[in-house]
Specification:
This protein has 220 residues and is an alpha/beta fold. 12% of the residues lie in helices and 24% in strands. Helix 4 (170-177) links the parallel strand 9 and strand 10.
Length: 220
């Protein structure tokens, strides 16, 4: 029997993902009390307004996030985000921050046309002061190896696919230039098998936008 595994952090009003970007704001646009005047007796609704940066919570980057001529969220093909054969690569052992190409060894046959999810264990620091700094990241060489392998999506359970101290952002540049979307701030990857699952991370199809939160999940 298939099992659904939620791999997303909840979006919480006032909770920062990046300390230098605004936190989401969830406010009540129409209260239940006020709505009663619009509907039949005993019928009420609440309508909320959400103001957020696209890079909030668990989110996906489309090529437009990095490149002006790249596809945006509305044009990102569903087959790049949904029902992908998944490979989880555990890189949580050891003190190293870098995710090197050697960690892909033995996975080549399963990577083509699939989602590669790097389990670093950094999600255990979510909602702590330690989360935004010193996170593991994908090196330039590893990003190139992923492109060469023909992967269709890359995910990580840490703040960013790149070292945030490197302004060149080589992993984003190489992956997004190849049309490979990136999902960041995943959670609970340790609940997945190494292979044999299907991965989904679909955002709202917002035109002219490069990044947006997703409800990432897997079917095991």
């Amino acid at each position: 029997m298939a099992t659904l595994v939620d791999l997303s952090h909840p979006l919480v009003s006032g909770q920062h993902t990046y300390p230098w970007l605004p936190a989401p704001e969830v406010t009540e646009f129409l209260s239940r009390d006020a709505s009663r005047a619009r509907y039949a007796a005993g019928t009420e609704f609440a309508i909320h307004q959400v103001l957020l940066i696209g890079n909030s919570g668990t989110y996906i980057d489309s090529p437009f996030h990095r490149f002006a001529d790249g596809v945006d969220l509305a044009d990102l093909p569903l087959e790049r985000m949904a029902d992908l054969p998944g490979t989880r690569i555990d890189v949580s052992v050891g003190p190293e921050r870098t995710i090197e190409p050697s960690l892909l060894a033995g996975h080549d046959a399963t990577l083509i046309g699939g989602a590669v999810l790097f389990q670093t264990g950094w999600d255990n620091k979510w909602r702590t002061a330690a989360y935004p700094t010193g996170a593991p990241f994908i090196t330039r060489a590893t990003a190139q190896a992923l492109v060469d392998c023909g992967v269709w999506l890359v995910g990580i359970d840490a703040l960013n696919a790149d070292d945030t101290d490197d302004p060149a952002r080589p992993a984003h540049s190489l992956l997004l230039d190849a049309g490979i979307p990136i999902v960041e701030n995943l959670s609970g990857l340790d609940r997945l098998p190494a292979t044999g699952f299907r991965f989904f991370a679909v955002p709202a199809p917002v035109q002219g936008c490069g990044s947006f939160p997703v409800r990432a999940f897997a079917i095991v």
